[in-house]
Amino acid sequence: xxxxxxxxxxxxxxxxxxxxxxxxxxxxxxxxxxxxxxxxxxxxxxxxxxxxxxxxxxxxxxxxxxxxxxxxxxxxxxxxxxxxxxxxxxxxxxxxxxxxxxxxxxxxxxxxxxxxxxxxxxxxxxxxxxxxxxxxxxxxxxxxxxxxxxxxxxxxxxxxxxxxxxxxxxxxxxxxxxxxxxxxxxxxxxxxxxxxxxxxxxxxxxxxxxxxxxxxxxxxxxxxxxxxxxxxxxxxxxxxxxxxxxxxxxxxxxxxxxxxxxxxxxxxxxxxxxxxxxxxxxxxxxxxxxxxxxxxxxxxxxxxxxxxxxxxxxxxxxxxxxxxxxxxxxxxxxxxxxxxxxxxxxxxxxxxxxxxxxxxxxxxxxxxxxxxxxxxxxxxxxxxxxxxxxxxxxxxxxxxxxxxxxxxxxxxx
Length: 413
Ligand code: PLP
Hints:
Blueprint: H1 9-14, E1 22-23, E2 26-27, E3 29-30, H2 41-54, H3 64-84, E4 92-95, H4 98-113, E5 119-123, H5 132-141, E6 144-148, H6 158-164, E7 169-175, H7 187-196, E8 200-204, H8 216-219, E9 223-227, E10 238-242, H9 244-248, E11 260-263, E12 268-270, H10 284-300, H11 302-321, E13 326-328, E14 340-345, H12 350-358, E15 362-363, E16 365-367, H13 372-377, E17 383-387, H14 394-411
Parallel strand pairs: 3-15, 5-6, 5-7, 7-8, 8-9
Antiparallel strand pairs: 1-2, 4-10, 9-10, 11-12, 13-14, 14-17, 16-17
Residues 35, 97-99, 127, 129-130, 175, 179, 204, 206-207, 227, 370 line the site of pyridoxal-5'-phosphate (PLP).
């Protein structure tokens, strides 16, 4: 698709076949993009074409088809490298998703380099994926987890972070953007402060990469992770970026085919990067689909997407603010967040809200969003969450607001 100079929303919507359907007789308004995004035809076609004309296992075939599949798979790796501006293609490891990427780092770097008494710093804004692997490691090794608090607007508290850093801090694992609130964290400064005390930093970029350009060299982070399915790409594919020197000095995550240079019954020698971390047959079609997704969003432009989503956030915030009894979890200023709105209604449980608005074709999330500590921080068991993507419209925000008025009508006075 050719680069576009204005935001041709109708055209972009037409790129997503799933969006043209009705649900319960209403046009589908898909507002659960923080959980997973829909797929453009370019991604579907690239995947289908691979299966129809290019499919074979990669790396080990001496025949033409396998060479073609390998070329496409490695081309996808290069596409990801360029997307996040990593220095070397060997620094891009394909995983099943962000969760696996984080577990990989905890189980390899963490297992090797952390020891009893060391401190790992997290924030209250983390998804369970960036809490539980560190908890498991902490209980196995006697580490201490320190958690940076957030203020009532869901903002990362810089002074508190600095006060938690010390010579005992060995690792900092932070989200780039909160999946519940949309809060954008000052990750570049977080990295610099952690490095000043000698700690390594992992950034969970799941909720950042669909909304903003990311440059891992500029951030100077040690690890950066994200999932393909939140970036308009397929499920089953994720990315771990790691600085080459760190990856080289980490043991493999899993053993098996493709990650070895040689094997005898006495000993195995590991393959070089990135293959050392990719045991078994990789998700070839999914990697190709992810590359197509990156091509697609870059053809629109992340800055154009960000402007569109900011407009939607502003509009939806105003529409929802007019609903009696609706409380936003964090009324953070627009410029410090991405297009996510978490809210409660005084008259209905979030699960009831999501079930009823679905009857009007509106898909939103309800629950703890895999962020139970954050729910505890704000004293709620769950919220309803609307999250906007590149294809959403003001009319869909209207549909949400209208459906919420109906919820009020059913439950409220
Ligand atoms: N981190 C954040 C901030 C997320 O929002 C999510 C998913 O919701 C994850 C990690 C986990 O991603 P996945 O389930 O694709 O591994």
